[in-house]
């Protein structure tokens, strides 16, 4: 859990990731999929930032751009002091060990022809000069850390269950002592009964190793459990970033509100008591986002100004950033709409 | 059956085995359930617990080999579907039982327009003319909330979003006014906002059409929202069955109890650490002689190894009619407290 003295490990400023669209016989560049369109946020050392939003809103693209698995179109990504977006290939290679990724589909991300020991040890071959004895010792240590039996070191991935394969992926991500890990839907492919095992493991490792996570997920209940703060994305942009309890108690952005209200709760006695906001229609194409606020085509609270002017992400209450014309920084705090957050006067300076 | 009403669908002792080169898989073991008119039965369980195979066995959708529906009865209005000819079964599937599957992209044919795919069953099973079928197709698309329906008949599936394709699948399933709709994880691949649209649609359609529905899901939130009754499956068996509120208020099977504890909540107190169910689901290599949950059960004792529990009533009402559970243990310790072993 973050306290106010910690500093950002990751600082993202005005990040854009466009994928060009080529069409016609000449494959002319006719437009761009604006998968990530000018977003800024911080991730504090030792915290878990949850990243949520509908399919296609750009979550994975953010995660991949942060680790420079994509070449960002524009913006800065500072991780532990280095601007990852502009590092030379050699400097990037030296930086790689500190930042890692855990993927959604543990099946697809593991080479079926490599043993578990080979898979976990591969990053060690590339980035460390360990002797083979030291390497094996390190592999065993990693297997212990993620709760895999050492006796399985020479087995192949197909012999493992989904949850065990995800442990292999996590052990591999940990091999080089990273500080920052992007977890992209790490439990989405797992059964409910197995999800809790993997989430507990990620939390234990964070406590023990002081890891910082970007936790991408569409499971809003699980994000509430694991995250310290949550960023809600819509169509390539951030709608709201807030501390987890404040967001779930009272989402400020209309999209965040609708998203949370759509989650069915496993409690039939509460059904009917809840106010559900059913959004009409679908998310517009990121190749052709609407003018003004990008949520204006589906927003239940849309006003004329929303179709003209793009709202800026700004501090609506201490520690809470919201991009919506309805939320005025000072009014929101005065009217006490943000509950206790508005009562506190100290403000956590938080970039952007 | 309660109050003399007759179920629209009744399944008794269904058993399905797959014979594969790697050995046999006992996917469905002695599954029984019924469905009352207008009722929505939720079926939950983790992947591999036999939910899909059960429903596909009912309507003859499994290729044989490898599938072998070994025994049981599937009564639809008195007719046993397991004894029906392939021709008769096809009729039932088109006209009396509609179904919707998880992935709408693989279920719609990409090379035909949406309109022609809705109109096909109408012409085949209801004998409508092309013009009549088109009128009905527009009605159906409007019913499932697709705007500008007449024009959209000419669209191809890839021109629709995931949520719209799932609406089309529901429209096709409803085309011939079926008595029963079987929906197999119809919202699992969708975003929560789109899932909320579909759930709302289903509630509305139930009121309008009064059809009986089987809704398969692994999401207990979805079940809590739309089901009247719930059947919990584990290892190819029904382990618990109850009205929805009763199941959430008073879960009796150790698997159901653990499952309800392991999922984090959207409201209320935020827990420090998630409760886990240790271990893995069973491999169904042979006909079960013991409780399928025993390796992961916190309450297992000697009898669980020796004898596969059969469903027994919890609330005095006969099995299937009220709340029942397949477990040797009981939370009050009435069954065999002396032998209850503390597990992991
Ligand atoms: N390599 C690529 N080339 C072109 N477009 C892409 C590429 N990768 C992603 N996109 C597009 O960018 C947008 C954002 O995609 P992204 O994968 O980041 O979404 P996401 O939020 O992770 O979605 P999901 O929840 O489905 O994983 C989408 O419109 C997607 O189609
Ligand atoms: N075509 C098949 N061949 C062999 N085994 C199968 C086949 N289809 C399903 N199974 C097995 O049957 C069991 C039940 O599967 P299924 O009904 O699909 O589970 P669920 O729908 O509950 O996730 C699983 O063990 C699965 O591996
Ligand atoms: S700016 Fe306008 S359209 Fe956008 S979220 Fe706020 S109220 Fe809705
Ligand atoms: S029968 Fe035994 S092993 Fe099975 S669920 Fe009940 S107590 Fe657990
Ligand atoms: Mg993604
Ligand atoms: Mg299934």
UniProtKB/TrEMBL annotation, chain A:
One of its GO terms (cellular component) is plasma membrane. GO terms for molecular function: ATP binding; ATP hydrolysis activity. The keyword Cytoplasm does not apply. It is a peripheral membrane protein. Its main location: membrane. One of its GO terms (biological process) is peptide transport. Keywords: ATP-binding, Nucleotide-binding, Transport. The keyword Nucleotide-binding applies. Pfam families: ABC_tran, oligo_HPY. Residues 10-260 form the ABC transporter domain. It is found in: Cell inner membrane. It comes from the Bacteria. CDD domains: ABC_NikE_OppD_transporters (cd03257). PANTHER family: D,D-DIPEPTIDE TRANSPORT ATP-BINDING PROTEIN DDPF-RELATED, TRANSPORT ATP-BINDING PROTEIN. Belongs to the ABC transporter superfamily. This is Oligopeptide transport system ATP-binding protein. It comes from Gemmobacter caeni. The lineage of its organism: Bacteria, Pseudomonadati, Pseudomonadota, Alphaproteobacteria, Rhodobacterales.
TrEMBL record, chain B:
The keyword Transport applies. Residues 11-260 form the ABC transporter domain. One of its GO terms (biological process) is peptide transport. Keywords: ATP-binding, Cell membrane, Membrane, Nucleotide-binding, Transport. GO terms for cellular component: plasma membrane. One of its GO terms (molecular function) is ATP hydrolysis activity. It comes from the Bacteria. InterPro entries: AAA+_ATPase, ABC_Ni/Peptide_Import, ABC_transporter-like_ATP-bd, ABC_transporter-like_CS, Oligopep_ABC_C, P-loop_NTPase. It is a peripheral membrane protein. It is found in: Cell inner membrane. This is Peptide/nickel transport system ATP-binding protein/oligopeptide transport system ATP-binding protein. It comes from Gemmobacter caeni.
């Amino acid at each position: 859990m973050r306290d106010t003295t910690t500093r950002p490990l990751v600082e993202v400023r005005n990040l854009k990731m466009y994928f060009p669209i080529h069409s016609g016989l000449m494959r002319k560049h006719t437009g761009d999929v604006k998968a990530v369109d000018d977003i800024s946020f911080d991730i504090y050392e030792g915290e878990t930032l949850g990243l949520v939003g509908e399919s296609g809103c750009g979550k994975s693209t953010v995660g991949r751009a942060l680790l420079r698995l994509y070449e960002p179109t524009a913006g800065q990504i500072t991780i532990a002091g280095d601007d990852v977006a502009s590092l030379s290939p050699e400097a990037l290679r030296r930086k790689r060990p500190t930042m890692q990724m855990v993927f959604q589909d543990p099946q697809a991300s593991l080479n079926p022809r490599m043993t578990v020991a080979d898979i976990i040890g591969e990053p060690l071959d590339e980035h460390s000069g360990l002797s083979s004895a030291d390497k094996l010792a390190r592999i065993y240590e990693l297997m212990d850390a993620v709760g895999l039996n050492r006796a399985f070191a020479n087995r192949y991935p197909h012999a493992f269950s989904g949850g065990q394969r995800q442990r292999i992926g996590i052990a591999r991500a940990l091999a080089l002592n990273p500080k920052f890990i992007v977890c992209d839907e790490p439990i989405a492919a797992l059964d409910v009964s197995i999800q809790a095992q993997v989430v507990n493991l990620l939390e234990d490792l964070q406590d023990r190793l002081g890891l910082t996570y970007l936790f991408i997920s569409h499971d809003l209940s699980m994000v509430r459990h694991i995250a310290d703060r949550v960023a809600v994305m819509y169509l390539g942009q951030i709608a709201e970033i807030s501390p987890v309890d404040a967001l779930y108690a009272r989402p400020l952005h209309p999209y965040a509100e609708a998203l949370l209200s759509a989650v069915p709760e496993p409690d039939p006695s509460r059904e009917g008591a809840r106010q559900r906001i059913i959004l009409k229609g679908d998310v517009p194409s990121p190749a052709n986002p609407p003018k003004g606020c990008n949520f204006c085509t589906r927003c239940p609270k849309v006003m004329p100004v929303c179709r003209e002017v793009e709202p800026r992400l700004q501090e609506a209450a201490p520690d809470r950033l919201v991009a919506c014309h309805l939320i005025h920084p000072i009014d929101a705090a005065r009217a006490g709409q943000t509950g206790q957050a508005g009562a506190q006067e100290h403000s956590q300076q938080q970039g952007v | 059956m309660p109050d003399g009403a007759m179920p629209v669908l009744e399944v008794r002792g269904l058993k399905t085995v797959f014979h594969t080169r790697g050995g046999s898989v006992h996917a469905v073991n002695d599954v029984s359930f019924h469905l009352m008119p207008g009722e929505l039965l939720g079926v939950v369980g983790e992947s591999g617990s036999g939910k899909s195979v059960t429903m596909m066995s009912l309507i003859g959708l499994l290729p044989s080999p490898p599938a072998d529906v070994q025994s049981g009865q599937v009564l639809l209005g008195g007719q046993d579907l397991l004894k029906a000819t392939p021709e008769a079964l096809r009729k039932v599937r088109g006209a009396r039982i509609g179904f919707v599957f998880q992935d709408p992209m693989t279920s719609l044919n990409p090379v035909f327009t949406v309109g022609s795919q809705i109109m096909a069953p109408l012409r085949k099973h209801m004998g409508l003319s092309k013009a009549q079928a088109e009128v009905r197709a527009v009605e159906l698309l409007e019913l499932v909330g697709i705007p500008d329906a007449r024009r959209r008949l000419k669209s191809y599936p890839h021109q629709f979003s995931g949520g719209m394709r799932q609406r089309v699948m529901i429209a096709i399933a409803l085309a011939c006014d079926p008595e029963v709709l079987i929906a197999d994880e119809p919202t699992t691949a969708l975003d929560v906002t789109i899932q909320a649209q579909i759930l709302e649609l289903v509630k509305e359609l139930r009121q309008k059409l009064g059809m009986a529905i089987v809704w398969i899901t692994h999401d207990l939130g979805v079940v809590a929202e739309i089901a009247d009754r719930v059947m919990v499956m584990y290892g190819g068996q029904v382990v618990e069955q109850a009205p929805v509120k009763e199941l959430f208020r008073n879960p009796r099977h150790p698997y159901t109890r653990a499952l309800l504890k392991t999922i984090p909540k959207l409201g209320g107190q935020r827990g420090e650490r998630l409760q886990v169910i240790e271990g893995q689901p069973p491999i169904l290599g042979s006909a079960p002689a013991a409780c399928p949950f025993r390796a992961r059960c916190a309450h297992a004792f000697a009898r669980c190894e020796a004898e596969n529990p059969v469903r027994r009533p919890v609330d005095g009402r006969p099995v299937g009619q009220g709340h029942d559970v397949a477990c040797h243990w009981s939370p009050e310790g009435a069954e065999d407290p002396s032998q209850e072993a503390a597990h992991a």
